[in-house]
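Section 3.1: Structural characterization of target chains.
Under the original work plan, the team committed to producing a structural model for every single-chain target entering the pipeline before any wet-lab resources were allocated. The record below documents one such target. The sequence was received from the expression subgroup and is listed exactly as submitted; it comprises 216 residues.
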Amino acid sequence: MTWDWSAVWDFMPRFWEGLLVTLQVLVLGSLLSFSLGLVWALAFRAPSRLVRWPVNAFTEFVRSTPLLVQLFFLYFVLPEWGIRFSALVTGTIAIGLHYSTYTAQVYRAGIDAVPKGQWEAATALSLPAHRTWSAVILPQAVRRITPALGNYVIAMLKDTPLLAAIGVLELLQQSRLESASTFQYTEPLTVIGIAFILIAYPASLLVRALERRLAR
């Protein structure tokens, strides 16, 4: 087997297109997972069981089923109910929704770690509930959980190739299309493997550095 640099060069247009899609899914999926995760975490603390129980049941169900199954459900089943999204939108929603159930547990742990005295101080100052959460509780909780949220961003990056199963033109799907047209598999797959390493490894170092900084 010989390495064909011309195959790498020919793959570059597809590579950049796939990289752009992968990063788009990663950014939007992360924002969705962080936002929904906070919603689930606050719902866990709702005084009404009619809120807590459905949210608990839903998050446990999502965490207990594979992301690939959820992708297929959203992409193939929802259209039968009249709900249609593009493959890219479906993939972004699936990743964001799936990981929101994990970030919800991270948020909950961060909220639970806020000292009881902070809650008592907010009560003593007669702060309204929204002010207590936005100015006292959440800033302290987020500071504690930022490294954990960063780890889930890396996990989402490594799960983006699953979107190729529904035709999203991310890195893996672009490499498959290139290989199908040229019958050369080594170069495209090696290039995207290196790309994932070059994104994930520096990101993991950044998360570790952030964790050490926040621990001071």
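The mean pLDDT is 88.
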